[in-house]
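Try it yourself: sequence plus iron/sulfur cluster, in.
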Amino acid sequence: MKIGGLVKFTLIDFPGRPAAIVFTQGCNFRCRYCHNPELVYPHLFTEPVAEEEIWSFLQRRQGTLEGVVVSGGEPTLHEDLPVFMARLKAMGYATKLDTNGARPAMLKELIDQKLVDFIAMDLKAPLGKYSVITGVETNPEILRQSMDLIRTSGLEYEFRTTYDKEVLTDTDIKALEELTQHKNYRVQECLPVAKEKATLKVLHQEI
Ligand code: SF4
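Structure, out:
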C-alpha cells in the first residue's frame, strides 16, 4: 500500500481502544472541505512511509495499542488492503476502516474474510446530491450497496456526515437520518481546514 502518514496514538478515533492511525495515499473523491489534500492530490503526495517502518512500530506497541485505524485518502482503492489488514489481525490488533463507501466489493472481501472489526463510512450528502460535495459523479446504488453491507455485517459501524452548511441543509440532514434508519449515525462539524492541518503535522512524531 502507499502510506502517506502514521499517527502513533489516538484515544478518539477507534471507540473504546487506544489506537494508531495509518493514512493511505490516494482518493477517488475531491470533497470541497477535504482536510487531507496531501493524501488526495497526487502532486501533493510526499514520499510514502515505508511499510516496514509501520510494522516495526506496531511490533513495538503490541500490548500497548489495541487497535489500528486504516484511513485516508480512500483505503479501499488499494488492492493489497486485505493483505495489510490480515497482517494487522495476525499481530493481534483490532482493525477499523474509514471509508467513503465507493468500493463495496472491497468492503465485502474485508467483511467476509473477517479482517475488519469496525467500519466508519462517510455519508457526504443525500445520495442524489453527492457530487455537490465530492466533485465527482457517484452512482447512488454503489453507496447503497456499501451501506447495506455495513449494516448487515454484524460488525461495529458508524455512518457520519460532515455538515457543510454552505451546501447542506437541515432537510438534507433529516434525509440522511432517515437513510441510516436513525442508527449509528453522527453529524460532525465542518472544521476549517487550517485547524485540521495541526493533526497532519504529528504524522511522524514519536511517542
Ligand atoms: S473522501 Fe475523504 S479523503 Fe477523499 S476527498 Fe473526500 S474528505 Fe478527502
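One thing you can check immediately is this: The chain has one domain: 3-200.
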